[in-house]
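Hi all, long-time lurker, first post. I run a small reading group and we've been trying to get comfortable going from sequence to structure in the token notation. Rather than ask abstract questions, I figured I'd post a concrete chain and ask someone more experienced to write out its structure so we can walk through it together at our next meeting. Sequence below, copied exactly:
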Amino acid sequence: MIAEVLPVKRLPRSMRGFDYEIPRTLEATVKRGSFVMTMLRNETCLGVVVRIKDHPFREVKLKEIDSVIHDSQLTQQELSFFEWLSEELAQSVSTLLYTFLPDVPQQKQQAQKNDFEKIAFTLSRSETSSLLGQASLLCERRKAFVYSADLKRSAALISFFAREKADQKIVVLVPNVQDAKKMAMALSFLSPLLWTGEDGIKKRFYTWKRFQSMDQGLLIGTKSALLSIASNTTTIFVVKQQHEHHGQHEQNPYFDVRLVAERYADLQQLNFFALDRSMSTDALAHFPPTHQIGHPTSVPPILWIDKRIESLTPSSLHLLPYRTEMIIQQYLEDGKRVLIAYNKTQKSQYIECSSCHTIMRCLACKNVLSEEALVMRCVRCKQAEPKLQSCPLCKQSLFTTKGISNTSLAQHLSLRFPHTNICLVDKEHPDVNPLSQIVLATSIYPETIFHPFSQERFGCVILLDADAPLFYPSIRATDRAIYQLETWRSIAQIHQADYYVQSGSVSLFDDMYANPHLFLAKELDERTAYQQPPFWHKACLWLPKEELRKTEILTNALIQKIRKSVPGVQLLGVAQDDKKGKRLDVLFLPSDRQEILKLFKQLPDSIRIDTQADLL
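-- Answer (accepted) --
Happy to help. Here is the structure in token form:
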């Protein structure tokens, strides 16, 4: 008998398995999904049997399988998952096997106890009642989006669901290692398994083995735990659904765990629940109002500081208006700590009149304009306008581009509040001084430092530049802005703090919050008109870094091939990326997806393919 074996190593996307003869002594043990050891190019190689055949593809002398790893194998469902995923990502099955199961340990490992701490947390009676009601609704749904303000409330909701559905085999996918550990500590009474990318190969393998053998239970992991959803899983939770770290778009194989998990859940009719603090435009397309549970939080209420109004009052720093300084001073005098959120990587570069401090705004949507080489461009609708020669209000001709780093802001705060202990928190300064009266933090604070189960308290949280995400050159700029607002609101809620938001686009945010569903529905209509995701799927092709002429020839040939195979496809031209080289964006209708993926599978490996760029 002949076994077709997939080597567990990176192979070209078009390459399939290799035929090996099964020795008579192993015929009873070798079957589809078996892990075997073979010789490949004079090296011992781990492989997975994908099918058993009576005859080889060609009449040639075949090598024999060396041995079988008897206590480990992929189930039929897991192997089918890899085959399906290889088509979805335009990758070889071997490459995906290597990504998620790079090796099978030869020595057995003793069962290890979970090494994370146990933490207890409490919720108010009203919140507990609300979460129990949401869990009850989840038990009646197969697919839903649940409004969940933070990790603490997400953990409570999952625990209620797990107790109500004790027979379920549940996978909880979170965006990073810190969240996975915090979730595991909060749900320690459910004895969860933990699977993260920082675990060694041996630990990940035996975590998968334990989960594979369970009839019910709970596994918490990051995107590296994607394999676990095929281990007879019945329910998938994606926590912090909008978080960009759910996607792997910086290295091969490119994938987005949100899209993979949802499509696989739909294919296998698994329960699929997305949890987050706010609804995005993309999420609304997947979860219409009938598939939503709960409501966005309004606690604490947002106390707006309108920079357009405050700019009329003289201040020592444009980013810190007089009113904001007075707010900080008042809380300090009351003996309360102040948390200031300002992300130095999102500098708000906008154009302001040096004389009257009027901010230049788009004529179409009234949002702020940023400066480019030849024009001024709206950060939201991208409409270009000629550079102004003078201010439309005071007729002066001197303009300045505004923006300040967090280190400069910390220095200014030290001068403004000279007897105050100020702590700067960013990637270079990741520690928070518990004695500091003012904490100036970047986005690293909610990502890696903030603990939703801590008892730390602040008097107020101030988001200094709510407009910064609006400058992001993407159709998701407004989604990013709302998500940043809600991220810091959830932190203020945990810290039992007042929440101040400083913005020059208060009217835009008012429109968003007045009727969020209507606002998002309008955004969806605009995406339909402009043929954007989620109504069109998006893929990115990264062309090899070769000499210019070769790249141009390859690009032109590729464009012609795509247009010939799928006439309705939209090609967005070739963009230059300093790190990855030239990029070709491809937009296509969902009905053309299979044809596009079939074409991608035939492309040379020198072209890197991200078939799941919908959420980029």
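A couple of things your group might point at:
DSSP finds 17 helices and 29 strands in the chain.
The chain has five domains: 2-100, 125-293, 302-348+403-523, 350-396, 537-610.
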